[in-house]
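User: Predict the structure for this protein chain, please.
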Amino acid sequence: MNKTQILIALVILSLFGMSSVYIDLSELVGSNNEEAVVPEKKVKHGEVRQYTKDQRLKTVVNYNQGIKHGTSYLYHDDGETVLLAMPYVNGKREGVSEKFYENGNLYASTSYMNDKLHGPRKLFYSNSQSKAVINYGYGHVGIGTVEYLINGEEKEAITITTQKEGSKIWLDTSSPCKDTQFYIGSLIEDTFLNPVDKNIKSLMREGDRYYVDTEVHTPSYLKYQDIICSCESSQGNPIILKSRLF
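Assistant: Here is the predicted structure, written as structure tokens:
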């Protein structure tokens, strides 16, 4: 066999090898030509429990086709005492939730409607004595918060106080409050405060003191407008107050 014949033979063998590889690859690709099957995500339905690493019960959540429906439970660290029981209807908080101390006594009961705070929120001391009642409506705090001492005695209600100096009427509260803000206008249903509602406006202030200037707001105007105060009590509860100056 001369050099030319040897070269032709090597080329043929090379092409045969490449074709074999091509065939093998084609078979490999062809064998996986079908679409990959993606496992279907399981939709939560019914009672779903979650445990801590040491197998203490942490949560129990009820679902209806992937949506929270029914009462969900969160547990204290002991895995036995309920910390929070929250009712859901079609994924939204609806009804009265209950929160508990570690000793099992009720800490708070809170009313919801359509996933918003709506109705009274009742707070209790660890000895089950009433601590406070706070009114809510449509997700907003309302007037009428009542607080109690641990002996059951009702605390003196906080009110708006005024002090007139020239054309200015300075505003304050009868007992110390944190994060105090004053507005003028009208509350939702004459009860609930929405700070961004178009029917109220923030009052002017100097430093941390709010005031009404009768040269800006005439007595005839103030006669039909509420002075509204929003603050936080010494117990940490939201307080909404309203008063008429004239």
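The helical segments are 3-31, 219-222.
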